[in-house]
Amino acid sequence: MFFPMLIYSCSSSYRTLFHLVHYQSDWQVYQTIEKELGKPKSEIFTDFDETPLATASIAQVHRSRLKDGRDVVVKVQHKGIKDVILQDLKNARTIVEWIAWAEPQFDFSPVIDEWCNEAPRELDFNIEAENTRKVARNLNYRSRQSDSSTANYVDVLIPEVIQSAEKVLVLEYMDGVRLNDKAALEALGVDKQGLVESITRAYAHQIYIDGFFNGDPHPGNFLVSKEPPFRPVLLDFGLTKSISSNMKQALAKMFLASAEKDYAALLSAFTEMGLRLRLDVPEESMSAINMLFRQSTPAKESLENMKTLNKERESNMKSVKEKMQKYEKSAHRNPVDAFPSDAVIFMRVLNLLRGLSSLLDVHIVYLDIMRPFAESTLMAGNVRNELAENSGWIFDSPVHSQVETKLRHLLLELGRQQYITGIQVCAYKDGKVIIDTAAGILGKYDPRPVQPDSLFSVFSATKGVTAGLVHWMVDKGKFSLADIVANLWPDFAVNGKETCKVSHVLNHTAGLHNAMLDVIKEDPYLMCNWEESLKRVATAKPESAPGSEQKYHSLSFGWLCGGLIEQASGKKFQEILEEAFIRPLDINGELYIGIPPGTQLSFLFSILW
Length: 609
What we know:
609 residues; alpha+beta
């Protein structure tokens, strides 16, 4: 309970601080303006409202009018606030370091490091002015050139920067309604759902397309224009984050991996963004990221949703700890080895955006709204077309035969036509390699080239191997396709399987297509127990008479063939595999059915997922 208590304490203190903020006296404001802009207020403005439009912890904002008649707002920094904030950050760092010393599993150093780096920049309004201009160029210019019907269209307003200094910022005045003024929004007939979706699209564009985004999207930093189509007005660009192209692509890959439930891509994204986890069970990582991108809910539903999510997480963590204790003997440790600072602001932004939807009582499906922007980022960096135009599409490795040369020409053509994402082809003839070619990229959202040793998670990969071993044993005269399985495997002769033939096993007519479903329901990890699985298959009852009906034996096929091979040969499956395939093809150490001896659990999961 320590972490939730800490967060609650900090948020409560922040609320108290917010309500205690008082605006500066008139003379302090005028003094700051004259000092920063080099002229008295009267020489710059014809009208200056002494009552602030808004006051926050760093500055206050006044409505004014320039000599040329333009309506503006003037943001004036509180006197002495820089020293206060820097001292607060120093104190916060001390507290975090103490917590990390006392409770190593609660090390928030990456978070406080990021704030210490970014907060001083927020105190320089010249930086905020340039940030405002840059975001305006990125969003407004591109949105005017784009098709409003597309999913990645952005339509927002950003005030023009008129003048800036370190502690004073003059901006174009935009008349609008505050996001938390629900009565005014309803009176105008604003589509709140569409409003929050527009804001979300704007942030998706900033993050995934521009790599430069406002890190502080709280309700006070938005207005809603009073004229149709009631566009959102983005304010306050003091806290912004610039991320590298590599980090931008890694964040996009993480998002799309969550959308696609692609564990391999998720772990790859973590590596690329510099996030190193000690957790060896990728289901928990996927669960955490899905939580980050989950659909938002109105405030009245949030509490129940959080209770449900907490129950699910507690259940998942219990399962994870049991697995880790079983295999690693170390379930109680800090799960993070390294946390990238860029991800701190990114996650803050997502949570603040979620708060907007809760404030306005709307549902936002982030996976749908942000997806086109993430896809654009990865597709822009996708080298498929570029590679298909040159030899880079084919991994640079020796050519073993004329047929391999022809194959590579074919793969180049298929690549140009975008029929292939990535492929590995290996073929032997008379015990010698005649083809060993890799081509393309690892995935639609992963532009890394496929190499001969690239790992892929492929379903039913062992069916061809096990079926091949059965045919090999037939060729060796160990049994025939017409033989009764029970004559070779005595334990199989129960529950109506007495007439099942070897050919029925191979052509999926054994009637045992659902034989392993009960095992999955009982305990999926029993499927990792070879002997137990063979017993379950041997005693299973067929759903149709052997040879009468063909149905794909998706789960049971490997054990049916494996049990038949072991019973007929009197040897272990791996021994027959080595005798028939591995030694003749000289691929020792490259082919296993099951877990290779001495393999660590963490490496195993990296292969599986």
